[in-house]
Amino acid sequence: MDRIEPQGVAERATLSRVLRGLLLATRPKQWTKNLLLFFGLIFALKLFDLRLAALAAAGFLVFCATSSAVYLINDVADLEKDRQHPVKRKRPLAAGIVRPGQAIALAAVLVAVAVPAAFALRPLFGLVTLGYLVLMLTYSFLLKHVVLVDVFAIAAGFVIRAAAGAIVVEVPISPWLYVCTVLAALFVGLAKRRHELVLLSSGASNHRRILEEYSPEFLDQLITIVTAATVMAYSLYTFSADNLPKNHAMMLTTPFVLYGIFRYLYLVYMKNAGGSPEEVLLKDVPFLANALLWMGAAVAVLYFFRS
To answer: Residues 202, 248: one domain?
Structure first.
């Protein structure tokens, strides 16, 4: 005979499954994108200022909550389309583990906590956080259906993160931070679109209609342009930014940037990866090791080899 579990045990198991599903639906792996909020602190030479570091950490948590609210709402909006995607159909909402009402409720709680917390940290930081929320919701319902604008909206989200990190610790925002961030974000966004197009093949438009407006060849050309511009912009930054050592030691970090770009291109073109940049960062050991080496080298140059 089949063993019948007591009702209380079954209910606890169901509750545990839903709670775990809600946690996964907030996409904690994508919180790595919010590490950009620490870049203003690092490159303004304030890394060892404990008060400012605490502010940057608080800003990071605010953006994790805000971005997770956006992911929850986006998954509710794309529920049926995600069920046609070979990877996204495993997400908690598409798989039926979490109900739309539960996701919306959690998103509302996250926004209700994150936005007031952002204004409490800095009023301007609160406005930027609110702007990020509006932009990403507009992207979820409108901008992602407009060719090219969809990719620029993704890039804008990264730029806002970088700017927010500088604002919350009240340090000047370098124009190089904007230029390098937007180019790198465009590179990632275009690679993501190409991955979706190749992965879904003839069914791409069923999942996302905007993919009809792209082709692998067109995206390849755009990726080539953005890749070259990214390398050039970072190279110019290493010897012309005002706050860098006058001995141009930051140029020593350029090989790490080149390898990171080449490795990402290898994963996109040879391994059909690139659909989730956070997965690349967390799972591809060479890419992760290179990112850590780049950051370590940059910190060493900025803080210990300035003469």
So the answer is: yes
Task: Specify if 87 maps to a domain.
Answer: yes
CA-nearest of 33, 30, 24 to 185 is 33
Backbone Cα Rg of the chain: 21
Could you tell me if residue 208 is inside a domain? yes
- Any alpha helices (H) in 142-273, and if so which ranges? 149-168, 175-200, 204-207, 216-240, 254-270
pTM of the model: 0.90
Rounded to whole angstroms, how far apart are CA atoms 101 and 29? 23
**Final residue belonging to a domain, choices 142, 173, 204:** 173
Residue 264 and residue 126 in one domain: no
Alpha-carbon distance of 292 to 252, in angstroms, equals 15
CA–CA distance, 56 with 40 (Å, rounded to integer): 9
Quote the number of domains for the chain: 2
C-alpha angle 165-180-300 in degrees, rounded to nearest 5: 70
Which domain covers residue 79, as residue numbers?
24-173
pLDDT tens across 169-210, in order? 999 888 898 899 999 999 999 998 998 888 776 555 555 678
Q: Tell me the two tokens of residue 2.
A: 């089949």
For residue 2, what is the DSSP state?
P
